[in-house]
Write a structure and sequence with these properties.
Layout (H helix, E strand, L loop, with lengths): L62 H12 L3 E15 L7 E14 L3 H4 L10 E5 L4 E6 L17 E4 L2 H14 L5 E11 L10 E9 L3 E10 L9 E9 L3 E8 L3 E3 L4 E9 L6 E12 L8 E8 L7 E4 L5 E17 L1 E3 L2
Parallel strand pairs: 1-16, 7-17
Antiparallel strand pairs: 1-2, 2-6, 3-5, 3-15, 4-6, 7-8, 8-13, 9-12, 9-14, 10-13, 11-12, 14-16
């Protein structure tokens, strides 16, 4: 089955949104300019090292969730899964963690079961259009909706704390048919439906993790200490998971002693520590220490410390999604997640 006659094929980009300015610079999107912003516009922060993505265009579904979505199909309801992913970018300018620049971006994703395509691509049926809302969105600064899938009236300028959107049935049908042709064995088809930026108004948004690092560089060795602790002023109460702290070391490294144990990669000249979990109900702070012995090339050049982490069932902004009341569609799952983007601190040099 090909695209519906007379309709342009809708192909929303699945690449990560980027904001084409350096951290803390650039002109932010205005709420009154939302309707004129192209979907291809990007959000990006280009400061610092690392290659951290701002967004993913897919999200994995467990087998139990997949079974639930298939079951609702047999009951003549269309299961809809949605996800809200937020990416926290923080630049700590010094050992004083209050000297920082914080930016937070979000992506809303939607997933359709392949078994629902016969109904969703039949534009002659009388099913009601799919509508959803971005709720509890008072902290949202700007929104970029996907104009290829959403009706023009619903992507016009809106103001929080709630934003309402309706899918274009023809645009959605053509996009689903194109996806099915491209991936005929896929069980689900996922799309970004909108991207947003959270207001960086002072005191409104707090980063989940505070970070500082100290260096003492000698000819034959380098001492590094990284201090971190959960920010209790951040609204996230769920634990941070799978934290990895990393930095670069220059010079010819002959040996590394650390507390706790660190991983040294000679290939990438990087030193890293892994922390499984950081929770308000357990260890919420710590220090990572290392002495790096140099055989030549000293003293080392102090470098940024970067950290990656994730947090489930939470958003920094408090944003959530909901479907309009409907006998046709069923919100089978909502996943919310916070992930570190470009999250790093400048080195503090000790004599």
């Amino acid at each position: 089955m090909g695209p519906i006659a007379g309709m342009a094929r809708a192909r929303p980009r699945s690449n990560t949104p980027t904001y084409n300015s350096t951290l803390g610079a650039g002109t932010a999107l205005r709420k009154d300019s939302i309707g004129s912003t192209e979907w291809g516009s990007s959000f990006a922060i280009n400061n610092g090292d690392g290659n951290h993505s701002l967004g993913e265009s897919t999200f994995n579904l467990s087998q139990s969730t997949a079974n639930l979505m298939q079951a609702t199909i047999s009951e003549h309801r269309v299961p809809i899964a949605m996800a809200v992913n937020e990416y926290s970018h923080v630049w700590f300018k010094s050992a004083n963690v209050e000297e920082r620049i914080t930016r937070t971006f979000g992506v809303v994703l939607i997933s359709f079961a392949a078994t629902s395509l016969p109904l969703l691509t039949d534009v002659h049926s009388d099913i009601e259009p799919l509508q959803f809302s971005l709720v509890d969105a008072a902290a949202i600064k700007s929104v970029v909706p996907n104009k290829q899938l959403l009706l023009p009236d619903s992507v016009a300028s809106q103001h929080g704390p709630s934003y309402y959107y309706q899918f274009d049935r023809l645009g959605l049908a053509n996009w689903l048919l194109a996806q099915q042709k491209e991936k005929p064995t896929a069980a689900f088809f996922n799309a970004e439906v909108l991207r947003y930026e959270v207001s960086e108004e002072e005191g409104l948004i707090q980063p989940p993790l505070l970070l500082s690092n100290y260096w003492k560089c000698e000819e034959d060795h380098t001492d590094v200490r990284i201090d971190y602790h959960l920010n209790t002023e951040c609204p996230i109460t769920a634990p941070l998971l799978n934290l990895v702290f990393a930095t670069k070391l220059s010079g010819n490294v002959s040996n590394v002693t650390s507390d706790p144990a660190a991983n040294w990669s000679a290939e990438s000249s990087s030193l890293s520590w892994t922390v499984t979990e950081l929770s308000r109900h357990g260890d919420c702070a710590g220090s990572l220490k290392a002495r790096v012995h140099l055989s030549a090339g000293g003293p080392s050049q102090p470098a940024h410390v970067h950290v990656v982490f994730q947090c489930s069932d939470a958003t920094i902004s408090g944003v959530n999604v909901s479907l309009a009341n409907s006998d046709t569609y069923h919100l089978s799952m909502v996943r919310r997640k916070v992930m570190a983007g470009k999250y790093f601190s400048e080195p503090e040099i000790r004599k």
